[in-house]
Amino acid sequence: SLHDPDRVDRLLFDLGRYYNALTDGPIVELPDRQRVAALLRAGEAEEARRLLEACLNRYRGGIEDGLGRVE
Question: Phi and psi dihedrals of 6, rounded to 5?
């Protein structure tokens, strides 16, 4: 849930440890993680959701996997 910024930040920290071979970097980059956390703390959940979806789309590499929106 995006209603708990601290939990989201911890989860994104964990995802940042995993490698994305398509982008030759972490699944979630540190600036993205920091921005999502800041947005959530500022009450900007929709903007944070868009940024998370952009991270997810980068990870997917344009492959349609049937997964829906970030909730």
Answer: -65, -40
